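Forum: Protein Structure Q&A
Topic: Joint prediction for protein chains with partners

I've read a bunch of threads here and the consensus seems to be that you should model interacting components together rather than docking separate models afterwards. I'd like to see that in practice. Below is the full input, 208 residues plus whatever partners are listed. Could one of the regulars post the assembled result?
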Amino acid sequence: MKYFDFAPVFKAMSDEKRLKIIDLLSNGSLCACKILEHFDFSQPALSQHMKVLVDAGLVSGVRVGNWMHYSLVKEKYEEVISFVKQISSENKEHFCDEECGKCK
Amino acid sequence: MKYFDFAPVFKAMSDEKRLKIIDLLSNGSLCACKILEHFDFSQPALSQHMKVLVDAGLVSGVRVGNWMHYSLVKEKYEEVISFVKQISSENKEHFCDEECGKCK
DNA sequence: CTCTTCTATAAGCATTTGCTTATAATATAA
DNA sequence: TTATATTATAAGCAAATGCTTATAGAAGAG
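Posted by a regular:
Agreed with the consensus. Here's the joint model:
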């Protein structure tokens, strides 16, 4: 089942600061140094957060000279939305379609 | 910003087994013992997973005699969907609406 | 080249997570 | 009551997470 692929995506979204980073990037790309201004932690900490977001496919980064420009991968959020719709909806194939015999 | 409230929800969804539990419950409620049949881990491990899902508001549990009947809180998934839409969409108020001065 | 700026990586550490086994709590049945 | 079945909690442990400081790498300016 493809939801195995989404666990790392939700893990990347399970941190308040990373959600804030996503929000910051929603109106357009920003360089790392600009994102860092919104937080109290160190530059390496941000670099690690960005790596988590990039590895999850939620954010992409391109180097422009000395700066890393990060931006949202919009399609990924569409995928997340349709996944949440699918996993929570009835009338689809899933693992347990037999009755629960134990529970009377 | 309300996305601070969603970090725990995504944390609950950041585990493959818990996503599988959500999928199992999508066609109707199941008792814990029936859910457990789909996994290799112990009964206490499942109990802890269910607690995470219930605490996040993704699943509700009611005791029926000896059994706990778990079911999805459908509205919560609608909330998650609209949150993902909102956080990834442009043209909304967010933290950083000034230009990135450093990045020329 | 050297120097500076921006970003990434390495190592260390405290906290959290996810499991285990053992035990307790809850509810039914005899 | 006692016995059984289902679920929850406690304690312990290995692995993962998120931060720190120190260092390294990458790119532009002089």
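The helical segments of chain B are 7-12, 16-25, 32-36, 43-55, 74-88.
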